[in-house]
Structures are given as C-alpha cells and as structure tokens.
Amino acid sequence: MIEFIPPGLILLCAALWVAVVPNHWHRLGLFVGPVLTLMAIWSVPDGVSLTAPFLDYELQLIEASPERRLFATIFATMAGVGALYAFKHARRLELACGFAYASGAIGVSFAGDLITLFLFWELMALFSTLVVWFGGTAGARAAGIRYAIVHLLGGVILKVGIEGVVVHTGSIDIQALQANNFDTYMMLAGILINAAAPPVSAWLSDAYPEASPSGSLFLSAFTTKTAVLALILLFPGTPLLIYLGVFMIMYGIIWALLENNVRRILAFSIVNQVGFMVVAVGIGTPMALNGATAHAFAHIIYKALLFMSAGVVIYHTGKEKCNELGGLYRTMPLTAFCGIVGALAISSFPLTSGFTTKTMISEAAAMQNLVWVWYVLAAASAGVFLHAGIKFPWYVFFQKDSGLRPKDAPWNMAAAMLIFVGLCFGIGIYPEPFYQLLPYPTEFSAYKPGKVVFYLQLLLFSGLAFFLLLPLMKRTNTLTLDTDWFWRTLGAKISERTTDAISRGYSRASHSVSAGISAALKPILPSSDTSKDSVPAWSIGTTALWISTLLSAYVLVYYW
C-alpha cells in the first residue's frame, strides 16, 4: 500500500507532527518521518501510480523514474540528516518548516503533470521563506521578504508559462519541451529563477546567510536542485543553458573569491556548482543528463557538509567573517576534518564524490566536441579549489590564531557530519553501484590514469597559486555588492525621485487648475473679500447647485 502514498505527503505529516506534538515526543517525527519517506520512495514503481481528477484534467500525483527517485532520495536523506544535526538547538517550528519545505521538493520530484509540479513548487516557496525568517534577526526578516518577492515573481512567471503551454497543447503532462515561443520561455525563466541563474541569483546569497545555521543547511539543499530536476525533465538539450551555465560557473567563482562572510562564500559556490548542472542539461545527451543527476546528488551531500561545519563554528564562536576567524583546528579537529572533506569534494579531488560526478559532465562535453566548454569546466574546477577547496578551510580553521578556543561539535552535529563524510568517500571510492542508479545506461569510468593525473596537477597548481597570492587575498571587513544593488539601492533611489517628481508635478497641475477655475468663476460668484489672495466663500446652496450642474453636464455628454 505504501507505493500508493505520495512520499512527500509522509514527510508533510511528519512536519505536522513535529509542529504540534508536545514535549520531546515531537522528535519521533524527526527521525521516523524521513525513514518512512525513503521506504515510500523506493516502493514506488516506475511510471504513473497515483492520479486524481481535477476539473477536466487528470493529475498525476506520483510518477516515478530513476532520476526522480534519486532526487527524492537525497531530499529525504537531507531532511533526516539535517534533523539529526539541528534537533538539539533549532526551534521546533523551524524544523517543522524545514520538513514541509523538503516535502515540497519531494512532491515536485514525483509530479507527473504541470499543475501538481506548480502546487508543490509554491509549497516550497512558502516554507522556505519561513525558514529564512526563523533566522530571528531584523536582517533575516528583511531578507525573507525579498526572498518571498523573488520567488512569488518566479512562481507567477512559471504559472503564465504553464497556462500558455496547456492552452496551446491541451496537455498538462510533464514532457521535454523546446524553448521556442513565449510560453516555453516563460516556463524556462520561472525555473531559472529558482536555479539562481543571474541576473536574479542575488536572492540566494542575500537570504541563505541570514537564516539560522540549521536553516541555511536546509536551504542549501532543495530549491536550486529541484530547479535542476525541472530542467532535466522539461528542457534537456536546450543550447541556451550551456551559455547560461558557464556564466553561472564563472560568476559564482569570482564573487566567492571576493567575499568575506563564510556563509556567503558557500552561497556563491552553490550558484557555481548549479552552473555545472545547467551546462550538463544544456548538452542534453544521456551522459550529460546522468552527470547532472549525479552531480546534483553529490552536491547536496558535500555542500551540506560545508554548511554544517560552518554552522558549528558560528554556533560556538558567534562569528562568521573570515577576518575574525582562524586557528580553530586546535580545539575543533573533527569539525575541521569534516569541513576539509567537503572542500575536497566540491573541488573534485580524486576519491571524493565530486570527482566521480563532475568528471561525467566534462566527459559529456568532450564527447560532443564542445572543446571550449571542456576547457571552461577544467578551469572552473581550479577556481572552485581556490574559493571553496582552500579559502574556506584555510581562513576558518588555519591561517592566523584568532585567539578563539571553542568546543568541537556536539555528538549530534558530529554524527550528521560523519554520515555525509562517509557518503562523500563512498561515492568517490566505489562509484559503480551509484552509477547503476542513474537514469541512462552509459559506459563511464572516472578513474582513468590520465584523468586522475590531470586533475591532481590542476588542483596542485591551483593550490600553489593561492598561497603565492595569499598576501593579496588578505580578508578585510568589506561588503560585496551583487546584482540586487540595482533594485535595492539604485532602483529605490530612482523610484523615490520619480515619485517625488510626480508628486510635485501633480501639485503644480492641481494648483494651476484650481487657480484657472477660480479665475473663471470669480465674476459670477459672490465674494466677501476683494483681495487677490482671498478664496471665494461659497454657500452650501451655491456649492450644491454647481455640483448638480457639473454632474448633469457629465451625464449628458456621456450618453450623447
């Protein structure tokens, strides 16, 4: 029977349990909910297994396929490990919202039609906004409002595209589309907003660092990767995505190198890593789509590991700027180790999950003779090693002695991090079982001697460049501007000045009209003051007469 229950609904019920059950019994839902959800995910057979009538359509609430199942699996796993990491310090309602947010992502994963996809899409927008607000600061409240505005706008754009596609095709089924008309471009734009594609990617680096450390952990996993799955299902092989993905890759690297805030560094690196997946979807071959799916899976693991290690530091020190940290490996060796593993994985270091998944995307580019894309991906791997592979652990755990002596991670945080450390090495050392779960049967081997040597050389020289340029990369207490400056600062000033100009113009026009009417009526109206600055004193009867006359004239002209 469990195969006929939407897996996302199970996690949503767990979220409700966590929110309303008193005392410590709510913790039962934190750990049983994800386990039952995983059981349901792997009990669902391929194809459509649950439908429901809606107006003239048949909603496909559950449609399973290998890529859908893999995305749902890592979403449920992230919910469970995130709960283990956060349950001792996060507020209960924050955890409930995190579970509801994850349930929306799982619902999108199994949605077989555009209407169901859109409903779960908006469920994610709602609860992810609440997760941001649970940051509990004025900055979190403001960032949450901006986050909600962007995602509501993206939802409206997606809805317009869906309506157009349904009207013109008569079908609500999720199927591969060509981005060649207004409807499909609107759908693509709505999805890309959630993927944090520039120029509207600033919502990610704005909101994620303002959430609580546990909130940032949940936020890092779901929204952008759900958008990647939507691109895989709806727009595979769209050439525009190659160019857009390359831009995302380079943009994320540059902004992460400039940033001083630890969580903003990791937020910009999300944009960078999602760029690799977008490039793979744009290539659109079976190898590339396998690479996009595999890299999304691995990315959630190592990115969570980075956010968890950063979260431990923030909880124990209250600081999250690189220039305020350093030397923490002395008292936080386990946290430092886990952070380094995550940094190596995101840098595609051999024996880690990042290497066995990201190289699949490079292989797909080479197979399609996209030489320039292959070179960009190789250079970007070096750039990722600079900003996340070395910069993050170096400035947080090494460099200077900041004088801070915080405790290491408590047992629940340590256990959560070690679970993902095991997955990083497991997928990296023995990837074949994982490859068997990918959607398309392809021949691929990550550990060819030439490939391993090339990546080791690339990372070695990238690390050498970092330490040679270290004096130029000294961290200072600076603010990195992003594209949101155009509407948060410049746009606000333009709007303010435009409003003032309109107000002044309206005031002058009103004064001129009033003066003209007064001048025209002055000869026929009684006046008790002959001075030029006096205002005519009208009796109530005269006022009523003129109002009646003007209304009668208006009615006469209107119906003439």
Automatic annotation (TrEMBL):
<dbReference type="Pfam" id="PF00361">
    <property type="entry name" value="Proton_antipo_M"/>
</dbReference>
<keyword id="KW-1003">Cell membrane</keyword>
<dbReference type="GO" id="GO:0016491">
    <property type="term" value="F:oxidoreductase activity"/>
</dbReference>
<protein>
    <submittedName>
        <fullName>NADH dehydrogenase (Quinone)</fullName>
    </submittedName>
</protein>
<dbReference type="InterPro" id="IPR001750">
    <property type="entry name" value="ND/Mrp_TM"/>
</dbReference>
<keyword id="KW-0472">Membrane</keyword>
<keyword id="KW-0812">Transmembrane</keyword>
<dbReference type="GO" id="GO:0005886">
    <property type="term" value="C:plasma membrane"/>
</dbReference>
<keyword id="KW-1133">Transmembrane helix</keyword>
<dbReference type="InterPro" id="IPR052175">
    <property type="entry name" value="ComplexI-like_HydComp"/>
</dbReference>
<keyword id="KW-0560">Oxidoreductase</keyword>
<feature type="domain" description="NADH:quinone oxidoreductase/Mrp antiporter transmembrane">
    <location>
        <begin position="111"/>
        <end position="376"/>
    </location>
</feature>
